[in-house]
C-alpha cells in the first residue's frame, strides 16, 4: 500500500472504535440498522447476495487493509430494492475499526483531498467485481480459478499466499462450482508446481505462470 494510502487509513482508524465480528456476522444489509464504515484489520469479509432459493453468490472479497462499506454511507435511498439484495458479511472472525457514517462524512468534507483516494478505492472494488464476473462467464473452471487466485493473493514474507480463511469450499462458492472441482483443479496446480500447501494455507510458488494462465481469459 502506498504511503498516502497508509496515511488515510491511519486517519480513518483514529476516527473509529476497534471491534470484533464473528464469522457470519452482518456488517451491512437492508435490515441491519448499524450505520458504519469499516477498516478491516484481520479476517475476511464478502459482498454477496442470497437468492430466494438460498443460493449464495459472492461478488467481491475484502482482505486486511481494505476499506469496507462506504458506498451505503452516501447512497442511502434507492428507487427499488435492487441494492438491498446485497449484504456485506464476515466470512471469518474479523477485527475492524468501525466509524459512524456521520463521523466519516464530516471527515471527508473537512479533507477534500481524501475524495481522490476514496474514488480510487471505489474504482478498484468495481474493477475487481467486473473482472470476477467476466472470468466466470466463459465457463472454463480452471482459468476462472487461476484468475481468482491471482486476484486474492497477498504478498507475505517471500511468497504470495491465499488468505488462510479461503477454504476450498469458500473458493467453490466464489466460483459457483462444486468443492470437489476446486479440489481437483488445485491438485492440478500442485502437480504443475504452481501452488503448494503450508498447513491450511495455499502458497503460490510461481505467480508469473499462474498470471499467464489467468490472462488466457481474464
Strand order of the largest sheet: 1-8-3-6
Strand content: 25-35%
Q: How many structural domains can be distinguished in the coordinates?
A: 2
- Could you tell me the CATH topology label of the largest domain: Jelly Rolls
| Number of helical stretches of at least 4 residues | 7
The CATH superfamily of the largest domain turns out to be Jelly Rolls
Quick check: average pLDDT? 85
Which series of helices and strands comes N to C?
Answer: HEEEEEEEEHHHEEHHEEH
GO molecular function, one term: DNA binding
Organism: Hungatella hathewayi
Keywords: DNA-binding, Transcription, Transcription regulation
Domain Cyclic nucleotide-binding: 25-125
Overall description:
The protein is an alpha+beta fold. It has 2 domains: 133 residues, Jelly Rolls; 76 residues, Jelly Rolls. It is built from 7 helices and 12 strands. It has a 4-stranded antiparallel beta sheet. Strand 4 and strand 5 form a beta hairpin. The radius of gyration is 18 Å and the shape is globular. The two termini are 24 Å apart. The model has no long low-confidence stretch (mean pLDDT 85). It holds the Pfam family cNMP_binding. InterPro entries: cNMP-bd_dom, cNMP-bd_dom_sf, HTH_CRP, RmlC-like_jellyroll, WH_DNA-bd_sf. This is Crp/Fnr family transcriptional regulator.
Feature tags:
218 residues; Jelly Rolls; globular; alpha+beta; four-stranded antiparallel β-sheet; single chain; 12 strands
What is the topology?
Elements: H1 3-15, E1 17-21, E2 26-28, E3 36-42, E4 45-50, E5 56-62, E6 67-68, E7 86-90, E8 94-100, H2 101-110, H3 114-137, H4 141-152, E9 153-156, E10 159-162, H5 168-175, H6 179-191, E11 195-198, E12 201-204, H7 207-214
Antiparallel strand pairs: 1-8, 2-7, 3-6, 3-8, 4-5, 4-7, 9-10, 10-12, 11-12
Amino acid at each position: 500500500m502506498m504511503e498516502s494510502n497508509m496515511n488515510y487509513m491511519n486517519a480513518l482508524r483514529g476516527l473509529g472504535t476497534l471491534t470484533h465480528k464473528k464469522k457470519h456476522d452482518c456488517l451491512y444489509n437492508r435490515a441491519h440498522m448499524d450505520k458504519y464504515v469499516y477498516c478491516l484489520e484481520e479476517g475476511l469479509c464478502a459482498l454477496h447476495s442470497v437468492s430466494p432459493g438460498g443460493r449464495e453468490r459472492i461478488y467481491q472479497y475484502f482482505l486486511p487493509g481494505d476499506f469496507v462499506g462506504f458506498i451505503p454511507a452516501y447512497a442511502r435511498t434507492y428507487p427499488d430494492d435492487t441494492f438491498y439484495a446485497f449484504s456485506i458479511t464476515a466470512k471469518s472472525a474479523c477485527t475492524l475499526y468501525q466509524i459512524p457514517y456521520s463521523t466519516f462524512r464530516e471527515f471527508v468534507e473537512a479533507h477534500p483531498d481524501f475524495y481522490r483516494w476514496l474514488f480510487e478505492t471505489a474504482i478498484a472494488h468495481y474493477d475487481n467485481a467486473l473482472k470476477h464476473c467476466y472470468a466466470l462467464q466463459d465457463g472454463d473452471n480452471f482459468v476462472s480459478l487461476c484468475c481468482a487466485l491471482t486476484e486474492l493473493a497477498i504478498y507475505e514474507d517471500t511468497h504470495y499466499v491465499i488468505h488462510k480463511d479461503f477454504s476450498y469450499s469458500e473458493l467453490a462458492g466464489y466460483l459457483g462450482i462444486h468443492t470437489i472441482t476446486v479440489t481437483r483443479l488445485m491438485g492440478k496446480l500442485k502437480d504443475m508446481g504452481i501452488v503448494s500447501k503450508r498447513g491450511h494455507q495455499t502458497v503460490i510458488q510461481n505467480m508469473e505462470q499462474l498470471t499467464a494462465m489467468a490472462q488466457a481469459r481474464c
